[in-house]
Amino acid sequence: MAEAFHCGARVTDLFVTVPARSRHQDLVTTIAAAGIPVHVVSGEVMDELAQTVTPQGLLAVCGFVDVPLAEVGQPGLVALLANVRDPGNAGTLLRSADAAGAGAVVFADASVDPYNGKCVRASAGSLFHLPVVAGARLEDAVGALRQIGLRIVAADGRAGHSLDDPEVQARLTGPTAWMFGNEAWGLPPELLALADESVAVPIYGRAESLNLAAAAAVCLYASARAQRVRP
Amino acid sequence: MAEAFHCGARVTDLFVTVPARSRHQDLVTTIAAAGIPVHVVSGEVMDELAQTVTPQGLLAVCGFVDVPLAEVGQPGLVALLANVRDPGNAGTLLRSADAAGAGAVVFADASVDPYNGKCVRASAGSLFHLPVVAGARLEDAVGALRQIGLRIVAADGRAGHSLDDPEVQARLTGPTAWMFGNEAWGLPPELLALADESVAVPIYGRAESLNLAAAAAVCLYASARAQRVRP
Which of A96, A119, A164, A203 has the highest number of chain B CBs within 10 A, making it the mutation to test binding with B? Predict the structure, then answer.
């Protein structure tokens, strides 16, 4: 909540319960001072509004924050979600992309809506930290990102190249968009074909695969390290 | 399910619905041939037994698979859960530890029960792939792991040393147990004091922290790479 306000999201209304108003007095005062209407509501109304099991007693109505593809600037690292459907995975991925210093996250094709409540909560504020593109066509996104100089690398458990291969690591020093596929079926051949390279997070044990958000964190941090750390 | 059977877990009974019996005919035949009682049940009974929203129609009753601390062997990489409470996080962490080639996972202090249904499902079979220690005291676990030659490294977002620091990477080439704390409050000072070193996954963007399972995947893969890849 404070994230949204401090990060410049257009907060249009604040709903608050009496106990939450006491707990977050400074924030509520700041928001009211900014001319934003503050509505005190009962716990029952908050339960309905928040659509979550244990609401925090504070709920801000914000304007949408997503940007068009053309306005992502010149990022060195991008996460490109191709049909990521689970909101928890998508939100966690957005949070990891933010932590790894990504300059944008693109929700493409049939990916979940970044404004899905579970996705927003799992993002832990990151939805407001970096440019997010919603509802893009994957092919358009790949074209636009390539145009501004990014290599498109598909994360694919079946790829021949391993993320730990020193040559792969060397290629990750340049501007990179990581493409992540659906949690159940990954990236089908026609989407893999859009990428410049496919790379697998190596499986050293007996697991069949990694959880999507875990694999994405490993890939994004491999890029962050390759782009920053001189060997 | 097939994981449990093929990985040597003691399956004592199999419950199956009629449609699932047709879908998984080979598996059911193999299990019946092994002398394990197979019980055909209705969809309603399966719903009750499986305690999940969309049961797969097949449910095996297994013996516990966890082992005592003294029986983890000589692992080169261990994940040590200190008060990890969320079963989804714990199961995902177990899956990532398996993928990264860890030799054991220890659930210590007030960590969730590894047999929690959500944890088992999030582990995607990994519960049956590597030695799991349940209900250990953290101090005992640290002592036992140090005794067999592992360095104890605490994952702590506030630590002074970064995971991407080349000196930290060099130290990760040796046998290592990663200690992961609670998803909300991390590792308090008295638990950090048990470790040989504290290391932070660096935050390059504006996120306050990483999701626990995502951070754990990054740490465990940093160890896997350091132990295998010659620079």
Answer: A96
